[in-house]
Write a structure and sequence with these properties.
Blueprint: H1 2-17, H2 19-38, H3 49-79, H4 82-87, H5 92-121, H6 131-151, H7 156-173, H8 185-193, H9 196-207, H10 214-234
Helix pairs in contact: 1-5, 2-3, 2-5, 3-5, 3-6, 3-7, 3-9, 6-9, 6-10, 9-10
């Protein structure tokens, strides 16, 4: 466990040095929250904009850390042969991936704390339930699986484009800044099949003190299980 912790600290230091990673994980989510919560440009949502935005931005933070940052970094490490060399050390492949997942957990904790504090300053007053942690965990598993599936099969440059493209799709179709119901009917169907919308919807329910629908739980669970299995079965350690 000491080796996993040491590797996780190294991963965190490297993450802080990646400007593009910090842009996706911290600057963009916080920028979206502050921009849309302070300017009266959103359609009427039946309450303060921050009440709708804060859970959606937390969902976006999960996507940025678990899929984009993890996937892109792992893809370049695989192409450069770093994963192969680290996997042969006493840390082993299991320890290496455990350290990466621990890095995601720590990064998410920092992101959620920063988003929550900013939202509270903007007038957000949540009524969180313990289910919120479970929704975040399911979402993190789903998007980490997607990120590692891409990183383990695609060339680093292709993976970079796919991860960033996926982030944009999830932002637009995930109900982050506006309800999915405002999309065209065909896009609503697509959005509800993707994991971002149930993640954002589940967080709104859990952080608002309301019940979480079975569709949200089943969709997130299916994505978490399927994406993890695909990542485990298809990941390649060598370029």
């Amino acid at each position: 466990m000491r080796g996993v912790g040491a590797m996780a600290r190294t991963e965190l230091v490297l993450a802080l040095r990646r400007g593009e990673g910090l842009l996706v994980t911290m600057v963009i989510p916080l920028g979206i929250l502050v921009f849309f919560a302070t300017l009266d440009i959103l359609p009427a949502l039946g309450g303060k904009p921050v009440d709708f935005l804060a859970p959606g931005v937390i969902a976006l933070a999960v996507i940025s850390s678990a899929m984009v940052a993890l996937g892109i970094a792992t893809g370049f490490e695989r192409q450069q042969g770093v994963l192969k060399r680290l996997g042969a050390t006493p840390l082993g492949r299991e320890g290496l991936f455990a350290s990466k997942l621990l890095t995601v957990v720590v990064t998410l904790a920092v992101q959620i704390a920063a988003i929550a504090l900013t939202a509270l300053a903007l007038g957000w007053r949540p009524s969180p339930t313990p289910a919120a942690a479970g929704i975040v965990a399911l979402g993190a598993c789903a998007f980490a699986g997607i990120g590692l599936s891409l990183a383990g099969r695609l060339r680093a440059e292709t993976n970079l484009a796919a991860a960033n493209g996926g982030f944009l799709v999830m932002l637009l179709l995930g109900g982050v800044v506006a309800p999915v119901e405002r999309l065209p009917v065909a896009l609503q169907t697509v959005a509800r099949v993707l994991p971002a919308e149930p993640l954002a919807t589940g967080l709104r329910a859990a952080l608002g003190g309301g019940p979480i629908g079975s569709r949200v739980l089943w969709t997130l669970t299916a994505w978490a299980v399927a994406a993890t299995l695909v990542a485990v079965r298809t990941f390649r350690w060598e370029p």
